[in-house]
Design brief:
alpha+beta; Cathepsin D, subunit A, domain 1; 9 strands; 144 residues; 15% helix
């Protein structure tokens, strides 16, 4: 399946199996047991709502499928698997987010939800990610 995605900003990130990370923090096993993958060129896709990983990374992270969700793509509607949450690390910030499985030909996609959770936005020149200017660049949550 071909997925048309818009975006020009690419950014490195690290993705870890959240269950593994939490078990490591609880002392059940060491850091070497946390399944993780470094992505040198994740695509920031503000028109995408979610965090999407190609199938090969989902297999590397040992994520379990939770459900199937109808998804609107640039070429129509399709059904995609939703997988366990991951720990997403971008620019010294981190968040936990569910994963949508996309075909291996598709890049890693950082959409609107993870951007909001990380409190990041595309820079005015459109070349990179920056901390939200409304929060003076600092990571902040809003409850209002």
């Amino acid at each position: 399946m071909q997925i048309a995605v818009r975006g020009t900003v690419q950014i490195p990130c690290r993705v870890e199996n959240l269950g593994d990370f939490l078990n490591m923090r609880r002392g059940f096993f060491g850091p070497e047991m946390v399944h993780g993958v470094d992505i040198p060129d994740a695509l920031v896709a503000p028109g995408t709502s979610c965090f999407a990983l190609p199938a090969r990374h989902i297999a590397q992270l040992k994520l379990q499928r939770r459900e199937t969700r109808k998804t609107r793509t640039g070429t129509g509607y399709a059904f995609f698997g939703v997988y366990e949450p991951v720990r997403l690390l971008v620019l010294d910030r981190e968040c936990s987010v569910d994963v949508l499985k996309v075909p291996d030909e598709c890049p890693v996609l950082i959409g609107e939800l993870p951007l909001r959770l990380l409190d990041l936005t595309i820079s005015p020149d459109g070349r990179t990610l920056i901390g939200n200017p409304a929060h003076d660049g600092h990571m902040m949550a809003e409850l209002a």
